[in-house]
Design brief:
Blueprint (H helix, E strand, L loop, with lengths): L1 H47 L8 E7 L1 E17 L4 E5 L4 E6 L6 E2 L4 E7 L1 H29 L5 H23 L6 E4 L4 E6 L6 E2 L4 E7 L3 E7 L12 E6 L8 E12 L6 E6 L11 E17 L4 E3 L2 E8 L2 E12 L3 E5 L8 E5 L8 E7 L2
Parallel strand pairs: 1-21
Antiparallel strand pairs: 1-20, 2-11, 2-15, 3-10, 4-6, 4-9, 5-8, 6-7, 8-10, 11-14, 12-13, 12-15, 13-14, 15-19, 16-17, 17-18, 18-19, 18-21
Helix pairs in contact: 2-3
């Protein structure tokens, strides 16, 4: 009887101990959850009472300028001979070149020897034929006079023989007047520069074919190419500044438009402008030059291109007042590579505007600006 009672006592004690342990653990977990939730509610309440500082944008600022703004057209081309400045040296008979003394780009004076030539094979043959015809006609005329004196020839036959003799004599004299001789020096007719040399030593050159081309001294102009849509903005006698592309340190030269072509150059696909410039300019034949033509100019409010932002169908910029950026609607006018003309309400010369960092701004935003140089 005692064993069942002891067993029951033990089982009951274990159950009671288990229940007490469970209750103790449950109570401890509840306290832990309360402790964990308490800081969360405290932090949230504190955050509700804190106001975050307004962001400050770092930007570059610069004043609005009032200056004369010009709109320019930039064109390129080369230096070419002016009309009527080219002198072509040739011979009226076939020649064979013995020596060439001229080179392209050489400066020559009037009377300077350019080459030495001999009569060509056909020219020599022509001279011999003329000499033989002259001798033969002279002999026939002498013989006809004897027959006429002996009453063996008529006056008509004598006149016809005289005419044949005169033709042979004139033909031979013409060859002599054209300078046909065994050796001839070809000389420059004007002071200038050698532009082209067409022949080489040993060449046989047909009659009247060019030997050397000379450009009269200081008679050059610039041939420039302009886009077809710009020609209506140009006029004859309009001034143009010319610069050497190769020598950037050289000073500009003021020229004037002599002529404007009304057709497109098939090589460059541009319209040719012909520009005269002073003889004192130091441009070289064939030199590549740049031209700047001012087509519009006026005094205006000017800002940097970076200061103006597109917004829908208009433009805006940000002015600076009391360390805050304020949006202003503006209209744009003349433009250059760096600057643009702006007009708008309340814009004044010297007003500070944002030129860099303006993409992230909104109206009234506080800024920290460094003034651009």
């Amino acid at each position: 009887m005692k064993r069942p009672i002891v067993f029951i006592f033990i089982v009951t004690s274990v159950c009671i101990a288990t229940l007490i342990g469970y209750l103790w653990l449950l109570n401890g977990k509840k306290k832990t959850m309360e402790n964990e939730s308490q800081p969360f509610h405290s932090t949230s309440a504190v955050m509700d009472d804190i106001t975050l500082p307004e962001p400050v944008a770092g930007v570059k600022i610069a004043p609005i300028r009032k200056e004369t703004l010009t709109e320019d057209i930039i064109v390129y081309g080369s230096v070419v001979p002016a009309p009527g400045a080219v002198q072509t040296i040739s011979e009226p008979f076939e020649t064979q070149v013995r020596h060439i003394f001229a080179i392209v780009g050489q400066k020559v004076s009037m009377g300077e020897v350019l080459s030495e030539v001999d009569p060509g094979p056909d020219t020599r043959l022509q001279v011999e034929e003329s000499k033989n015809n002259f001798k033969s006609a002279k002999e026939k005329l002498r013989h006809m006079k004897q027959r006429f004196d002996l009453k063996l020839a008529t006056i008509q036959e004598l006149l016809q023989t005289k005419q044949t003799f005169q033709e042979a004599r004139l033909r031979l004299e013409n060859l002599k007047q054209r300078g046909i001789r065994e050796k001839k020096q070809v000389v420059a007719d004007v002071d200038g520069l050698i532009n082209k040399v067409y022949v080489h030593e040993g060449d046989i050159v047909p009659a009247s074919m060019p030997l050397v081309e000379i450009v009269a001294q200081n008679r050059f102009e610039a041939r420039l190419g302009v886009e077809p849509e710009d020609i209506n903005r140009l006029r004859v006698d309009q001034p143009i500044s010319l610069f050497s592309v190769y020598m950037q340190s050289s000073r500009d030269v003021t020229g004037r438009i002599r002529a404007i072509s009304r057709s497109v150059n098939q090589v460059t696909r541009l319209v040719d402008l012909f520009v005269t410039f002073p003889a004192s300019a130091e441009f070289l034949p064939g030199e590549y030059v740049q031209g700047k033509i001012t087509v519009s100019s006026r005094e205006a409010l000017i800002v940097s291109h970076t200061a103006v932002l597109p917004e829908g169908d208009h433009y805006v910029l940000f002015t600076v007042k009391e360390s805050r950026a304020w949006r202003q609607s503006v209209c744009v006018g003349l433009q250059t590579d760096k600057d643009v003309e702006v007009t708008g309400e309340n814009l004044r010369p010297g007003d500070l505007i944002v030129v860099l960092g303006n993409y992230e701004l909104h109206d009234g935003m506080e800024i920290r600006g460094d003034e651009s140089p």
